[in-house]
Amino acid sequence: MTISIDKEIIKDMPVVTYSGKIHLIDKPQQVQSAIAVLRRSDIVGFDTESRPAFRKGVHNKIALLQLATENEAFLFRLCKIGMPDELTAFLEDPSIQKVGLSTHDDFLQLHSLCNAMPQGFIELQKVVQEFHITDLGLQKIYAILFGERINKSRQLSNWAAESLTPSQQNYAAIDAWACLRIYKKLSSGNFVPEESPYRHDEASSTD
């Protein structure tokens, strides 16, 4: 048994909306209070955004790092504030769980900014496979679990721009928050793979 979803099905789903509070952290003096709020959570969603590179082999540095609780999202503009010690310490703290998708790539990019050794991270791509989900992209995983579509239209926008538009901020917040929602849904026991409408049974072979 496997679980996967077709892009054509996702297209007709309602778009995900984010109703939480978004905090844009673009000044060094804002970092400490933001981290203090995040440290009150046992688990947070994690993601990053980089200015897109349209040439093969070119990789831009992380411009934005997102951390989200159930009701708040903190968008750290690393392109403006660098990599603050308080943020590095948070990422290295094993007592606070951080949930992300394809985190290995994020860690490689973070290493180009600082010598952080991230700890306490949960990789969603590994978790979903335990539930027979073979789609490993955030949009598809979210659609399978919640029947809603994450709008990816801002994915290739300029994350190192002088200012981020409200739609960019909303997109960035959703990406980190969605990781948290997915993990909580799966770990709660409320998702039964056998009951998923996107279940595909493997054809039985006969001798």
Explain what this protein looks like in three dimensions.
The chain is α/β, with parallel strands linked by helices. The protein has a single domain (2-194), classed as 2-Layer Sandwich (Nucleotidyltransferase, domain 5). It is 34% helix and 17% strand. It has helices spanning 7-11, 31-38, 78-81, 85-92, 103-111, 124-129, 138-146, 166-187, and strands spanning 2-3, 21-25, 43-50, 62-68, 72-76, 97-100, 121-123, 199-200. The strands form two sheets. The chain has a six-stranded mixed beta sheet with strand order 2-5-4-3-6-7, with helices on both faces. Strands 1-8 form a two-stranded antiparallel sheet. A hairpin with a 3-residue loop joins β4 and β5 (72-76). The longest helix is centred in the last third of the chain and has 22 residues, at 166-187.
Layout of secondary structure:
Elements: E1 2-3, H1 7-11, E2 21-25, H2 31-38, E3 43-50, E4 62-68, E5 72-76, H3 78-81, H4 85-92, E6 97-100, H5 103-111, E7 121-123, H6 124-129, H7 138-146, H8 166-187, E8 199-200
Parallel strand pairs: 2-5, 3-6, 6-7
Antiparallel strand pairs: 1-8, 3-4, 4-5
Helix pairs in contact: 7-8
